[in-house]
Amino acid sequence: MYNNNQYGMYAPNQTPYNTPYGGFSPMPNTYPTQPQFAPQTPNYAPQTQSAQQMNTNKIYVTGIEDAKTRQLPANSDYIFLDNDKPLLYRKTVDATGKMEVKAFKISEYTETEAAPPAPPVDMSQYVSVKDFNSEINRIKKTIDGLLKREVKDNG
User: Fold this and answer.
1) Which phi and psi (to 5°) does residue 100 adopt?
2) What angle do CA 91, 92, 98 make, to 5 degrees?
3) Who's near 89: CB < 8 A, 6+ residues apart?
4) Hey, which bits of the chain come out as E strands?
């Protein structure tokens, strides 16, 4: 039933582990040959320095002068952490090599700091509820009096 035939089947006394390819021999290539093409290399323009992403790193320094003296590549943005004080220095260098250093205080953030307190309201500019209600009642009485007079004049 299992003979070594043209389809590469193995005989019953053979195991697939004793023969190459797990007992199956590869099929002969009966397809016509296809033309071979030379691999094409894509025509990409070289990437310029300004198109690259900015570098970002953290470096520990002993003060702002130490951060200013560090040499950095163009188009970079570095963060320097002060070893002695709770300060952070951000040094940016643009494509022309111009640098800028800013210092920031580092402090712990808490949720109570999230919303600033509302400014105090000057209540002297507002009318009290009692005065408002009395004014509304006075206006209602005036309107009712006018409506009664109009009904009396027309009727």
Assistant:
1) -140, 130
2) 115
3) 61, 64, 67, 79, 80, 81, 82, 101, 102, 103, 104
4) 55-61, 76-82, 87-93, 99-105
Looking only at the bridges linking them, the beta strands covering 55-61 and 76-82 are: parallel
Cβ neighbours around 19 below 10 Å, total: 15
Per-residue pLDDT for the chain (155 aa), expressed as one digit of tens each?
444 555 555 555 555 555 555 555 556 555 555 555 555 555 555 555 555 666 666 788 999 999 999 888 899 999 999 999 999 999 999 999 899 999 999 988 877 666 777 888 888 888 889 999 999 999 999 999 988 888 887 76
Q: How many CB atoms lie within 10 A of CB 119?
A: 6
Which residues does 100 contact at the CB level (< 8 Å), separation at least 6? 91, 92
Instruction: Extract the tokens encoding 105.
Output: 């205080």
From the list 103, 92, 10, the residue with the least C-alpha distance to 63 is 103
